[in-house]
Structure formats: C-alpha cells, structure tokens
Amino acid sequence: MDSKITLDSMERDSVYKLRDTLCKKLFHIIKTKRPIILLCIGTDRSTGDSLGPLIGNKLKALVKNDFILYGTLEYPVHAKNLCDILQEIKEKYTNPYIIAIDACLGNVQSVGNIIIEEKPLSPGSAMNKKLPKVGNLSITGVVNVSGSLEFMVLQNTRLYTVMRLAEVISRGIYHSILKTLGSKKISDFDIVLHNINKNLSASSK
Among 24, 80, 155, 170, which residue carries the largest CB count within 10 Å? Predict the structure, then answer.
C-alpha cells in the first residue's frame, strides 16, 4: 500500500475504495494475531472535532468481537485523557496494531477527503496541542479549511460534512472486517447502522 492515499467521501464508491485499501493492510496484520485497536479521537463538544466519536458510536455494536474500540460519543478519547488511554492500551495488550482516527483541517479543495497513511497522526495539531503521536495506521477526515482561529473553524464546521465522513469511514472499516474475516453479512451492518443513525437523529432534536 502507498504511504498516503486520499479518497473523496462524496464519490459513490468511496466506501469500497476505503474497504479495499484497509484490507490490503489488515489481511497481513490479522494473520499475525496482533490485537487491532480502533482509536477514535475527538470530542462531542465541537462539531468539527466530533468525527472520531461519531465513527466510534457507529462501530461500537459491530466490531466488539473482532477489534478493540476506544472512543465513542459517551466515552470520547480527547486531549485530556489520551495519555491515560494510551497507557491503558500499553498495559492491557501486547504489541497492538492501532488504527488512529481523527478529524483534521486542510485546504478548501480537500474538505470532505479521507486520508489514509501508514504512520501515526498528531492529535490536536490544529489547536497547537502537544500530544503524543499515535497509530500504526492513521485515518483522517478533512472537515474544514485550515488557517487562523482553528477553534472557531472547528466549532462552525458543517454537521453534514462530518456525518458524511463518519458514515463513509465507518462503513469502509466494517466492510474491510467483513472482507478479511467474513464473520457477518453486509445486510446486518446496514440494519444496525440505520438504527444507530436513527437514534442519533432523534437524540439531537
């Protein structure tokens, strides 16, 4: 796999491009029996920074038997607890393979893109926060335009953009699990994801 792959979440086949990209890497990792951890970083207190917890929420009912999940709307992984979570992972799991997922800012043309890289990501970099780099593989969604006043930019990010990215990334991750492990039917995922989205919409009213 190339060191950096960029996908457009608005493309109709973006889910399957993400699935195939992840499968190329995960197939080898699964064969090694290493624990695979999905670390969804962000907070529900900021629209632009809620991408990670939204993805975690969509996946929490689906990956518990296959992957280890950290970061949901109820229990987010953010700047204040990231170091503690990383220490917990280090103590509980031997040589884990961490897939780190987070939102990021970029140029106007890249908003809505998904970036997959075989390297750690730097949480909180848009806010100039000094946090440890994390992840053997990183998945980032470009939620808005970088520049000045990043805090305000994240606060004023369109929810549609974040939700679209969350849906594509969560589907891509789960379909990669289906393809590599073959443990459930795709229709099961679609039903559960529909119910999760329905519950999220109801709770926001």
Answer: 170
